[in-house]
Structure formats: structure tokens, C-alpha cells
Design a protein that fits this description.
GO terms for molecular function: DNA binding. This is XRE family transcriptional regulator. By secondary structure, the chain is of the alpha+beta class. The protein has two domains: 97 residues, lambda repressor-like DNA-binding domains (434 Repressor (Amino-terminal Domain)), CATH 1.10.260.40; 171 residues, Beta-Lactamase, CATH 3.30.450. The strands form two sheets. It has a five-stranded antiparallel sheet. α2 crosses α3 and α9 packs antiparallel against α10.
């Protein structure tokens, strides 16, 4: 069911009419985020300076928060910008943060910064993804990982989880398919817990339907020295590759798109892997 949220609800104008899906009451959303952060009303009261009694009245709909109150509570609960906008709209206010297309000229400075990272990380792989894991950009080193991936998986909206786990993707060359599969599922489920988007739920269902297509050497056996992070172990034309990743994000973003960007950087776990990427770049 849809409803019109018109300018001037309780005297707080949007400046235009916005058609949205029926929204949960602000109090219910606030309670969900508080419980997700494992905070009692008293804990949140201490953090924000708002009395626990008043928080209770807001959560039960007996009191209406001001715009500043919504922002203060969202900040204390570390709510992502997209969901802060949802809290504002649920309370009857206009969204505070724009959502700009990644390739829009207004994000040129952000793309320049990301491009610098990609370029200087070469020949090691680096990719840029959005909140769904959609591939937005990558460097030359990432091409080595994507060799032999079905071109169909690399056309249109390319999803990193699909490329990694699909039987016609990277999966046949993964030596620790089970570990990598669980890693991607954990990431997708964490995202689903934040915004409950049907696209994420659909991708989880799709990934769960994939069958292993190569021998899995298994994960860490608990006896050998533990890797510093979950490794990505890949068979390649240049020998076996073993890597870990770090994720870089923007500090203090003021745009929803920028807040959801992630630059994933791949680093070698051994000298053979580093040499393989260097040799591939030289070739």
C-alpha cells in the first residue's frame, strides 16, 4: 500500500510531495535501533541526555520528537545515513542527506580519491563496491582474479558475491570455497539486518542455491599458524594465490552514496602471491 506524504505534515514542510511506502512509526524504528545496539532506555538516556521517561514516551508514540532530537538519537545509535533519513521521514521531517549517483559530477572529488587508491594499489587487486556489493570500479590487478569468469557475470550490474561464488565465476578456482562462501553470506546478512532490502534477501537465496564446483581444501585446521585474516585462496594460471583484504571507507561522509562506498584492497599472504601479481603485471 502507498500513501502520499504531503508538504506540511504537522507544519513541517518537505517543499514537495513525496510518494513512499507506508512507513513504520518513528517510535518503533527507534526501539529497533536501540535494541540492535543492545542498549536499554536508561543507557540511551545517559548517552544523549534525554530522560528515560521521555524516550519511553517517544517509543510508544505518546511524544513526538523534534528534528534535532531525531538527529541526536540517530547519532548516539550510530545509525547509517540512509536509515537516518528514514527516521527523519518517519518522524515527519524531510531527509537530511542526499543520495547522489556515483558517476555524478558532484562526486568527482570522491571518485578521484578512490581512483588514486586503485591506481597506487596496482598490481595488487582492488575493487570498489556499494552496499549491495555491486562492483563500481576496479584496477588492473583485479583482472587477474577475474580471469576465466563467464563474461555474462561481468556485464550489467556486476555483483562481487555472485562473481566469487557462482559456478561460472571464481568458485571453480577457490581452494577454500566454504570459508569464502560463509564470509559473503555473513556480509549479506549483516546488510539485510540494517535495511531489509529485497535485493539482498534475493541474493542470499541465490547464493545458497549455488553448488560447490571444485575440491575444497578446507579452512584453517587449528594446528598450523593462523593467518592474520580470512584468506582468499585461488588457483590461477600463475600459481596458487593466497590473499587477505582490508576495507577502506570515507570518514564523516555527508552523502548516502559516499557513506556506503567500500574500497576492498587485496594483499598477499606470501611471497609467491606477491611475485605472481608482479609477473602478471609485467606480462
Amino acid at each position: 500500500m502507498t500513501s502520499e506524504v504531503m508538504a506540511g505534515r504537522r507544519g513541517r514542510g518537505y517543499g514537495c510531495a513525496v510518494t513512499v511506502q507506508t512507513l513504520p512509526a518513528f517510535g518503533g524504528l527507534l526501539r529497533q535501533w536501540r535494541e540492535r545496539r543492545r542498549l536499554s532506555q536508561f543507557d540511551l538516556s545517559v548517552q544523549t541526555g534525554v530522560s528515560a521517561r521521555h524516550l519511553s514516551r517517544i517509543e510508544t508514540g505518546r511524544a513526538e520528537p523534534s528534528r534535532q532530537m531525531v538527529l541526536r538519537l540517530a547519532e548516539a545509535l550510530d545509525v547509517p545515513l540512509r536509515e537516518r533519513n528514514a527516521l527523519l521521514v518517519a518522524a515527519g521531517f524531510a531527509p537530511a542527506w542526499a543520495e547522489t549517483d556515483y558517476w555524478d559530477e558532484r562526486l568527482a572529488v570522491a571518485r578521484e580519491a578512490v581512483g588514486w587508491i586503485l591506481e597506487h594499489h596496482d598490481p595488487l587487486p582492488a575493487v570498489v563496491v556499494d552496499r549491495f556489493g555491486t562492483l563500481l570500479d576496479f584496477n588492473g590487478g583485479a583482472g587477474l582474479l577475474m580471469e576465466d569468469v563467464d563474461p555474462e557475470l561481468l556485464s550489467g550490474r556486476v555483483n562481487l558475491a555472485r562473481v566469487a561464488l557462482h559456478p561460472r565465476g571464481l568458485a571453480p578456482r577457490l581452494r577454500n570455497f566454504g570459508e569464502v562462501r560463509q564470509y559473503f553470506l555473513d556480509r549479506l546478512r549483516a546488510q539485510l539486518a540494517v535495511d531489509d532490502h529485497p535485493a539482498v534477501a534475493g541474493l542470499i537465496e541465490e547464493v545458497l542455491g549455488y553448488e560447490p564446483v571444485a575440491p575444497d581444501d578446507g579452512g584453517w585446521d587449528g594446528t598450523s599458524p593462523s593467518p592474520i585474516a580470512l584468506p582468499l585462496r585461488v588457483r590461477s594460471r600463475h600459481g596458487d594465490l593466497s590473499m587477505f583484504t582490508t576495507i577502506a571507507t570515507f570518514g564523516a561522509p555527508r552523502d548516502v552514496t559516499v557513506s556506503e562506498l567500500a574500497v576492498e584492497l587485496f594483499f598477499p599472504l606470501d611471497k609467491a602471491t606477491r611475485a605472481a601479481f608482479a609477473a602478471a603485471a609485467g606480462a
